[in-house]
Structure of General stress protein:
Amino acid sequence: MEQSEAVNRITEILSESKIGVLSTAQNNKPNARYMWFYNDGLTLYAKTNDKSPKYDELKDNPHAHVLLGFHDSQDHAFVEVYGNVERIDDQELIDWLWEKRDKEFFDSKESPHLKVLKIIPEDIKIMNDDEYGDVTLSL
């Protein structure tokens, strides 16, 4: 498979899948949680509270793993994203990501604790895809 085909398929899966698992590690112990993800091409974004344990974990160790997809397609295709996470405090980016359901977690999009995690992929694997098979894209 050509790289452009892999990028197109990965972007398709990322665009269709919004709920996934973010895994981090602290003191050599893994920690995983479900999160809402948004993508701009291959770059992923997630909102978080700067008081959450993951926010501190990512300060100490910015490496993360994300699973997205599976139930969102007939063949259960999903992606595994390995990358580095930047902790971002940018109101313009928060405005872009804000949704009505975020009011369950934050009073408003101006909440001082609302932050963005930007996941910059190093490797992305397409898994369980009947058409493409298992493919790894290294960036």
